Amino acid sequence: MRVNGKTSRLGIAILGAVLLQAGCGGSSEPDQGGLFGQAEVGDDTADGDTPDGDGGDQPSFGDPIPGALPAGPVTVATEPGHAVVTVTDGSTTDHTPVGPGNTFRCVFTDDQINLDVRSEHGGMLLTALRGDDGWTGRFTADADEGAADDWIQYSAQPFNGELGIDHDTKTLSYVGSAVRQDRNAMADGDIDTPTVDVTVAVNCGIEPAVVEVADQTFTFAPFEADSMTCQITGPDSIDITLNSLGSQDRQLQFSLRPDGDGVIGGVYVTDGDDNWRAIISTSGDTAGGLSVDGATATFTGTFEHTSDVDPDLVEEFEGTATVTCPN
Length: 327
Known about the structure:
By secondary structure, the protein is mainly beta. It is built from 4 helices and 23 strands. The two termini are about 25 Å apart.
């Protein structure tokens, strides 16, 4: 797959991250805590069967996580829906899901932070876990630098520097070292992976989309959707799909496009077997309930409620939908 004129090899990138994680006691398999979990060390490996039979220095379950860092204040900031990697005296790559098919999945809890981004520049993975002695984390990010067919990555496995976390704003910063990898050069046998200074800023703090209709409130956390398209590029151009059908059996679509001298579009909510639809149309005299303020779109008007299990059900309610997209 080619992204923005560049060759994306994210699958190989993830494999590289997996191999590095394996050396750090991590796991690429998802667990119940988030997108990228850390495997526990079982009792059979805690005894450490080394060649000399003495158990060696193998870590056992419950040992402190090597390289744990204290979490201080966030020192490098960015806008919601952005993950920015800046190399000192080098490039800056801003991963944000501005295009169709891009994703920005982020789980931000008290004990675990997981980020999975697919942007026009490639991909970025980041995870941070809190243990008794502090936080341990890692990231791997494609960089928007070099020629069109170059493929540069930066990776810290694990974090080695200063970590900042703010749970109230769902933001994270990392100031420290990373390894630069030129995968095309490495494929040619040039194993040159210099260590560089980087800063990383992640902002997962965007307000959830909300639809209120018929005394019900539906919320959609954009950064926790199975997939997301969220673009508001003008008062007559909206393309939003927050798809959680796989995990929550719920989806929100909010679309708008020019139609002659006016606009046409709508708001569509799927919640299990229930469907809610509001038509936005200048010719149908329903566009008056639409307002667009920067990256926030709001519609207030009539929603039609139907059901997949009751074909005779058709009822109308007044409702409001509000969605804010990254910009």
